[in-house]
Amino acid sequence: MVHKDKEYCINESRITKLETKVEEHTEDIEELENEDKEIKKTHHRDFVSFRNQMNELQGELISINSSIKTLITVVTVIGVLVAILEVISRFPPFH
Question: How far apart are CA 48 and CA 29, in angstroms?
Answer without folding.
Answer: 28
